[in-house]
Amino acid sequence: MFNTSKKNKKGRRSPLATVSLLAVALMTTGGAYALFSTSANADDSTNTTLAASSQSQVNEGQKLFASNCATCHGLSAQGTSEGPSLIGVGAASVDFQVGTGRMPLAAQGPQGEEKPEQFTDQQVDAMAAYVASLGPGPSIPSSKLTAGAEGDAAEGAELFRINCAMCHNVAGAGGALTEGKYAPNLRDVSGKHIYEAMLTGPQNMPVFNDLNLTPDQKADVITYLKYVQDNKSPGGFGLGDLGPVAEGLFIWIFGLGAVVAMTVWLTAKTN
């Protein structure tokens, strides 16, 4: 006969093993929970810091706006008889207008002229953040789209000729419009401000949103303009890149003047 009592005693699990397994399970669960909580708290802390920084920038922008812009645009940017509402224009519009010195206006006129900017880049960013907080609108474009290095210059040239050359000239030299207004020269204009102008349509310029010109097409236009800036005309004196008008005027003044001078000289010599 086999001794079954000894066999059962050997196969029976010790109570200490169960306690040990429970302890290990509790420690593992507790450690995982602590790790997860720490990560979540870190993320929450980061988000809180970012939110506080953003709110701080908006508050600073609101102060700058009240001091420099509210006279024309209203304390809440709702607009007045002296200036339009800025609710919904977005950060890109503020960055363009203030970043190029067009705003604040030096004086009332047919259009705001570019001049040295009155604020630092940080102050411009703060005012843009404040106006952007008032309502959704176009945001400041990424540097990848505005650098002028990644686009297709040939495609950009065609797009520019179709959409922009009738006002800005095919070489971006600018031109006169009606009622004392004008399309500005695009030489030495940053890619960011060119993109923002297409996106927001300042003054007489139409808006080229992403349905009219995609972000990549806008980048192509900037690449073309940068190419024109960096590669001067090989044909000698460019006459301001104003095309046949300037060339015709040159012929009339100097060419016809030379003919008249030669005629006077021959007549005087005969006499």
From TrEMBL:
Alphabetical list of PROSITE patterns matching this protein: CYTC
Class of enzymatic activity (EC top level): translocase
Entry's transmembrane regions: 249-268
InterPro entries for the chain: bc1_cytC-su, Cyt_c-like_dom, Cyt_c-like_dom_sf, Cytochrome_c_Oxidase_Subunit
Cleaved signal peptide residues: 1-34
Topology in the lipid bilayer: Multi-pass membrane protein
Keywords of the record: Cell membrane, Electron transport, Heme, Iron, Membrane, Metal-binding, Repeat, Respiratory chain, Signal, Translocase, Transmembrane, Transmembrane helix, Transport
Catalytic activity: a quinol + 2 Fe(III)-[cytochrome c](out) = a quinone + 2 Fe(II)-[cytochrome c](out) + 2 H(+)(out)
Domain Cytochrome c: 56-135, 151-229
Major subcellular location class: membrane
Highest taxon, organism lineage: Bacteria
Subcellular location: Cell membrane
Record-listed E.C. numbers: 7.1.1.8
PANTHER family assigned to the protein according to its UniProt record, in alphabetical order: CBB3-TYPE CYTOCHROME C OXIDASE SUBUNIT FIXP, CYTOCHROME BC1 COMPLEX CYTOCHROME C SUBUNIT
Entry protein name: Cytochrome bc1 complex cytochrome c subunit
Annotated source species: Curtobacterium salicis
